[in-house]
Write a structure and sequence with these properties.
mainly alpha; MetI-like fold
Length: 264
Amino acid sequence: MNRFSGISLVALALGLAFLYLPILLVIAFSFNASKLVTVWGGFSLHWYEVLFSTPAYLEAAWLSLRIAAIAATLGTLLGTLGALVLTRLGRFPGRALFGGLMLAPMVLPEVILGVSTLMLFVAMDVERGIVTVALAHATFGAAYALVVVQSKLVSLDPNLEAAARDLGAGPVRAFLLVTVPSLLPALIAAWLLAFTLSLDDVVIASFVNGPGATTLPVRIYSAVRLGVSPEINAISTILIALVSIFVITASLLHKRGLTGTARR
């Protein structure tokens, strides 16, 4: 039993090293003074200075933030509406099909999502740009938002909203005053998760973007194909930090919301 436990720990350590060692190397070499990305030349912030003085990366970063904010807002709204349909309407014809369609972007390969959305925009003669990228990102962001919000909705006490309606509040007013505040941690967590997914997407954005709509991950991917430059390590480190902050915050908010509901 101890031998198998030791083997499991070694396998776990190797797996974690395979996953996270490259990320740690990228972070470490972002502070490298040398122009060679694999040769340590001393600690320096030079490549961060180069990064913040490069207009192309700054414009792409600002565009990615705007697209991610729009996509996260739309995705959270659609995911919340889907969660309300699945939890409040009970059993209705086509419920399983509706739930499957809402969650499909979570399991479909991103290449298929990219090709399908591209064909849709071409068929509708929609010019590709910021709007198409935001809409495409909102589709898979909605699936993750649905999961987060639905897990909170099923744990809410429906009698609270019913009590508000008994006291004279209408359905909309009772929902806004009772249900929405209880859902707020889940809504914020869903928004942050959808924002993060949009911020680091490459595959789908590369299919549906257009002139003037090149996101930061797509620009990084294009630059890496010509060779890894030191400023790529710097911008990758910033993205890793942002994504980590958003994911950890979303997880804490979601956990806090579920804990608060359990206590009540």
